[in-house]
Every structure is written in C-alpha cells, then in structure tokens.
Amino acid sequence: MMTNDVLYRIRDLVVEYHTRAGILTAVDHVSFDIRRGEVLGLVGESGCGKSTLGKALMRMIQEPGRIASGELWFDGMNLMQLPPGEMRKLRGSRISMIFQDPMTSLNPVQRVVDHITETIRVHQPQTSEKAARARAAELVDRLGISRNRLDDYPHQLSGGMRQRVMISLALALRADLVIADEATTSLDVIVEAQFLDLLKELREEFNLTILLITHNIGIVAELADRVAVMYAGRMAELAEVHELFERPDHPYTRGLLRAVPNIRLDDAELYKMPGSPPDLVSPPPGCRFHPRCPDVMDICTRQAPTFYENKPGHFVNCWLYQEREENVSLEEASS
Ligand code: SF4
Fold first, then answer.
1. Which uninterrupted H or E stretch holds 133?
2. For ligand 1, is residue 296 a contact (CB within 6 Å)?
C-alpha cells in the first residue's frame, strides 16, 4: 500500500548492462521511497550505480542496458506498465532531470526561449506561442536570468545560467520530481553556492521533490532531508540527514564521512578508505563491501545482508545489525 506522503516507490529494482565481459548489474535489488516535498540525497563513489538509478527512475536506460526487474510506482502509477508514449508525456511534465553538463541536454542550435516554449507547447498544445513566451520570460526572471537573454543560444550563456535554464524546463510544467544528477559538478564554488540557494528557494516556492544525486557529501548536508548511500549497485544505508551524519551505522558510510575534509582536523587525520569498488560484472560474494570492510565477519563473505530498518526511519544493509529479531524490512515497514 502506498501512503500519501510517498511520491515515488521503488521496489527490488535491477538494472543490467550486457557487456563483452558479461552482465554488469549496475543496480541490484534496490528498494526505497521518495517522499513528497523532500530532498533526498543519493551519494556514493563513482560507478556505484547512482546515475543509472536516476535514469531508471525516468525509464531512460538505453541499450545495451535494461531494467531487468522491479517495480516503479510514481504517484500511484505503475511506470513499468506504462506504454512508451505515456512515459514520454510523464517525462518533463511530472519528472524532470538536470544533468551535470546541460550542453548535452540543450540543443545548441535552439535559442533559450525555444527550449522553454517547445517544452510547454509539446505538453500543453492549447497554449499559444505568445502565452508560452510570456511564461518563459517570467520563468527566467524568477531564476535570475535577464529576459533579454531569452534569444541567446546555449553556448552564449555561462555554465550557471545553463543550469538555470535546465531548471526552468522542469518548472515550466511544474514537474513534481526533479532528479538532479551531479548538477553542480561543472560549476565553480561561488556559482554552485548560488545554484544551491536557488534550489532551496524553488523547493519551498514550488513544493518540489528533489532527488539529489551527488558524490559531494557537503552538498547533501546543505540541502537534503534524508540521505541514501549506495555501494556497488546496492543500497547501503538510508536515514534522516542528521541521523546519518551523527550516527552512521554502515561501515562504508562511516568511511565516506571520515574521508570528507574537516576544517577542525589536520590533513594528516583525513581517512583514506582502503581498496576500491568491485567490478560489477563479477562482484565479490556476500556483502560487496567485505573486501574493504574493517568489521568484516565470516558470514559477510558468504551471504549478502538485507536492507533492514535498524532504528525508526534508519535502514542499513549490514550483518552487524541483522541478528536482531525486532528488525523490520523496508517492505514490512511500509505495508
Ligand atoms: Fe562489513 Fe559485514 Fe557489514 Fe558488509 S555486512 S559492511 S562486510 S560488517
């Protein structure tokens, strides 16, 4: 059963890529909810599957990849059953994505205004060209871009402005969910801070739900309500942001947090996690983190733990917590 505060329910999602070396499972039986109006941070090292997961939520996995199994319930709709035409309508109008490099999403030979008006008129064909243009002008004004820049081409804008144009496309149709995939990585620190402030304001003003995919823990601390940590295609931990930062349970999360530079510590104290993430074509058996884990036990090398609610609202995928009888799986907790 889907409660009203859940906008997107993901269950047992598996995404595979067929490569020459074999089947690469980029997302492996991942389950979690995105709550209405929240900012959910999704963090993990490069190659952990977080961008693939973001694309899968839009059903944008392309060959040689595919969603092999799982359930995607968006606002009560079963997206795995939605015909491609209906899915196309949903993309952009209700779920929107902002990528790291907007130049790959913006058409270089289309003016800013054309991007926005076309988005509006494809989804709302009854809107006149004039009304769509007026809406585009209001939107760029709101996002701090002069409306005089509406007739510019993407290459004439700065990186920060291009990211704002991408947001304007999401806002043009009042998307319920914005998936921001490393959206600030190409921005300098000052523009990044401005962009994050803008996201905060827009979130309040438009009641946006945001899935913030990033490798930058600082951004998550700044913006997110809850944080999900991925490791090697699996969900490692999920909790409220303060809970996760104060009391991380999973040894991988603890390592990630210790590896973040801290102004109160000397550089010498900065932690470097041993080893590197596994090859997802032939990952280690049992817990995928076991070759790097300081707390590894015998069972970890043989059997994978499951994603359990260890404390209210705090889920973890680790044998250190699985023996307890009172543990509740995500499915049980949400039924
Ligand atoms: Fe470490 Fe075992 Fe927990 Fe994996 S399951 S994180 S190896 S203690």
1. helix 129-142
2. yes
Let me know if residue 131 belongs to a domain. Answer: yes
* CB-ligand 1 contact for 287 (6 Å cutoff): yes
pLDDT tens-digit profile of 105-138? Answer: 788 999 999 999 998 988 888 999 999 999 999 8
Number of domains in the chain: 1
Q: Which atom of ligand 1 is nearest to the CA of 236?
A: 6
pTM of the model: 0.88
Centre of ligand 1 from the C-alpha of residue 273, in Å: 14
Q: Residue 82: which domain range?
A: 6-334
The CB of 299 under 6 Å from ligand 1? The reply is no
Residue in the block written with tokens 């999360």: 253
For position 134, which CATH number holds?
3.40.50.300
Distance, CA of 206 to CA of 175 (rounded, Å): 9
For 128, the token pair is 């006149």
- Determine which residue's CA is closest to atom 3 belonging to ligand 1: 318
Q: Counting Cβ atoms within 10 Å, is residue 123 exposed (0-12), middle (13-18) or buried (19+)?
A: middle
Q: How confident is the model at residue 280 (pLDDT cuts 50, 70, 90)?
A: very high
Atom of ligand 1 nearest to the CA of 250: 6
